[in-house]
Amino acid sequence: MTGSELTAWMERVEHGNLPALHSLVNGLRRDQDAVIAGLSSSWSSGQVEGQNTRVKRIKRDGYGRANFDLLRIRILHRS
Question: pTM of whole model > 0.85?
Fold first, then answer.
C-alpha cells in the first residue's frame, strides 16, 4: 500500500464489519500525516530494526547469566 491509497482503504474499513480494524483506523487517523509519509517514503529502517531485534533477542537469551563481554562476543559471532 502507498500513502495515496491509505485514505480510501481507511474509509472501506470504516464501512466494513471488522471492529478490530475500526480500532486500527482510529489509531492511524491520530497521526495520519506521519503514516502517509512513512508509506510514501522510499527509505526504510527495516535493516536497522531487524538488527535491533536480533541484539535484543541475544541479550534476553543470556539474561542473568552473561556479562557484557560475553554478550559482545555472541553479537559479533552471529553477524
Answer: no
Retrieve residue 58's grid coordinates: 541475544
Burial code (b: 16+ CB inside 10 Å, e: under 16) for 4-29 equals eebeeebeebeeeeeeeeeeebeebe
List, as one string, the DSSP characters of the chain: --HHHHHHHHHHHHHSS-HHHHHHHHHHHHTHHHHHHHHH-S---HHHHHHHHHHHHHHHHTTTT--HHHHHHHHHHT-
* pLDDT values of the chain reduced to their tens digit, one per residue, 79 residues: 778 899 999 999 999 999 889 999 999 999 999 999 888 888 888 889 999 999 898 888 877 777 888 888 888 886 6
CA–chain centroid gap for 3, Å, is: 17
Distance separating alpha carbons of residues 64 and 75, to the nearest angstrom: 17
